[in-house]
Amino acid sequence: RYLRARKFVPQDAFAQFKDTEKWRKDNNLDALYEKIEIQDYQEARSVYPQWTGRRDRRGIPVYLYEVGKLDSKKMIAYSQATSKSKAKGPSPSRMLRLFALYENLTRFVMPLCSAVPGRPNPETPVDQSNNIVDISRVGLKQFWNLRTHMQDASQLATAHYPETLDRIFIIGAPSFFPTVWGWIKKWFDPITTSKIFILSQEQVKPTLLAFMDVSSIPKKYGGELDFECGMMPSLDPDLRKCLEMKDPKLEELFLTGPTRWVDSDEGEMVALSVGSIDGNPHKEAVATMSSIAVRTATNSSMFQSQRSHPNFSATQLSSQPASQPTSAPQSRPQSKGTAMAQTQMQAPPSNTVQADFQQPLQAPPMQPSQQIPSSVDSSRQQMPIRMGPPQAAVAPESESTLQNGSIMKSQPASFDGPNDTPNGKVDPPKSITVPPPQLQRAETQYMTPATEPSELKDFQ
Fold first, then answer.
1. Alpha carbon of residue 49 to chain centroid
2. Rounded to the nearest 5°, which phi and psi values hold at 272?
3. DSSP 8-state assignment for residue 337
């Protein structure tokens, strides 16, 4: 995610990741998520996009945001509640609850969606979300009053939860919306606005059907799902089949409160409901997942397996040659009897490819049979290397266009000379050696604690 956000420039991606780790330490993010009042968390959930419990055809979770329900009375009450919050940190109190919602996305929803078998490309973790944003019955004054509320979420995601958004489908735009879109889009960064589709009434159902099954589309938009904001997520059959609830009465707490995953000694994923109730710390095992397709990284467990190695340091990450394949970090310590899914990330090729993340603002009608490529998949496509007959033993300095469209100047590449043949043809060079970039970064101390099976002993 950090590489995509920083146009596949390793130095910039590592710098942003390092800044995020410092930000997490300064705001004590792990303790915040563990101790947040469950009532405060649920109040924050009511004024931001809510997971429907469903996924699109690629396994990406689908969120719904009904902006019309955020009237001035509700937003004033929420603002007053956040100002009285006991949670402390360098960030404003209204932001601390928003932090917890993003933690739930990355530590609960994404790992759950990644682990479910049966989705396409199961070796690739789910690390993004889709949002249906309904702005019907929203007046101009309400838009203006919500600008800070929306800016907070966009700026936080851009800085510390990059590339967690796949697409936003805006539905029910009022007649004046095209007029005010020019100043509304300034609330968001350009990459976010490039992922926004404004759909007319006729485009809503065909467009959503191109991405997800009719059973995952809310009824009010032409689907079969009985879900509105404020309701408990309705898990799709594949998700529910893999989960075993400890107690059916705990399902609401499992789906609407702060929850995270840990590994058991038996190789299962166990969901822990965390937070506080009336100031008393709460931690309870609420569900178990045994059918696991792939384990994915969360903020609480990223880089743990590397940190446990006695010779590991963060400088090894920054100094690794970009031209060599790099194994992705394991998300959690390997549990007994469970093989960890490994993914590989390769450096982008040097030849020119077309940038794929710039998408038109107005989405055309689409048929359900259309194949919609994932922005994740397309950003990782590897193109073949095209080589022409070399003119000299050392290639001149060249410019190449990365997959995101940015221009990168490469260092001279040396290669073995061509082989002349009797018919005058020139064979391609035997090998190419590209000097890796020199990344000079100080060692980063990773602040997120390990997730250990020992946490489960209290619940056995």
1. 15
2. -105, 125
3. T
Residues 315-373 have pLDDT tens digits of 343 334 333 333 333 344 333 333 333 333 333 443 333 333 334 344 444 444 444 44
Distance CA 36, CA 45 (A): 13
Q: What does DSSP assign to residue 268?
A: -
Closest listed residue to residue 125, CA positions, set 109, 141, 140: 109
Half-sphere exposure of 329 (CA within 13 A, CB side): 21
DSSP string, 188-243: S-HHHHTTEEE--TTTHHHHHHHHS-GGGSBGGGTSSB---TTSPP---HHHHHHE
Q: What token pair was written down for 303?
A: 């880089």
33 touches 106 (CB < 8 A): no
Kindly list the distances between the CA atom of residue 344 and the CA atoms of 132, 183, 347, 385, 437, in Å, as whole numbers in the listed order: 31, 41, 10, 19, 20
CA distance 447 to 266: 28
Distance CA 6, CA 403 (A): 12
* pLDDT digits 0-9 by tens, 40-73: 999 999 999 999 999 999 999 999 999 999 988 8
3-state secondary structure 432-452: EECCCCCCCCCCCCCCCCCCC
Distance, C-alpha 137 to centroid of its chain:
30
Name 392's Cβ contacts closer than 8 Å, sequence gap at least 6.
none
pLDDT at 153 over 50: yes
The DSSP string of 363-409 is PPP--TT-----HHHHHT--PPPP-PPPSSSBPPPEEEE-TTS-EEE
CB 114 within 8 A of CB 295: yes
Tokens of 41: 């968390």
Question: Is the pLDDT confidence value at 9 over 90?
Answer: yes
Record the tokens describing residue 435, joined without a space. Answer: 């000097």
Percent of the chain with pLDDT over 90: 45
| CA 318, 319, 321, 324 torsion-angle sign | negative
Residue 38 CB: number of other CB atoms within 10 A?
18
